[in-house]
UniProtKB/TrEMBL annotation:
The keyword Metal-binding applies. Pfam families: HMA. CDD domains: HMA. PROSITE patterns: HMA_2. This is HMA domain-containing protein. Keywords: Metal-binding. It comes from Taxus chinensis. Residues 1-64 form the HMA domain. InterPro entries: HMA_dom, HMA_dom_sf. GO terms for molecular function: metal ion binding. The keyword Chaperone does not apply.
Length: 75
């Protein structure tokens, strides 16, 4: 089980709907939460972070991985 958190530039409820539509169609997604106020999309399931990023980017919204607070980026 993987949790992917994205920052998505959503300007209206239509944007939220577009993001929900692509996530509903995506294979492996078990649940998701679209927070319009925080511009935050959390996806849980058997998914790869890159694939989720690519899928949400298809909506035309500015999409990036949520910056991890207080953690050094370690690979």
């Amino acid at each position: 089980m993987q949790t992917v958190v994205l920052k998505v530039g959503m300007s209206c409820e239509g944007c939220v709907g577009a993001v929900k539509r692509v996530l509903n169609k995506m294979e492996g997604v078990e649940s998701y939460d679209v927070n319009f106020k925080d511009q935050k999309v959390t996806v849980k399931g058997n998914v790869k972070p890159e694939a989720v990023l690519q899928t949400v980017t298809k909506t035309g919204k500015e999409t990036s991985f949520w910056p991890e607070e207080g953690k050094e980026a370690s690979k």
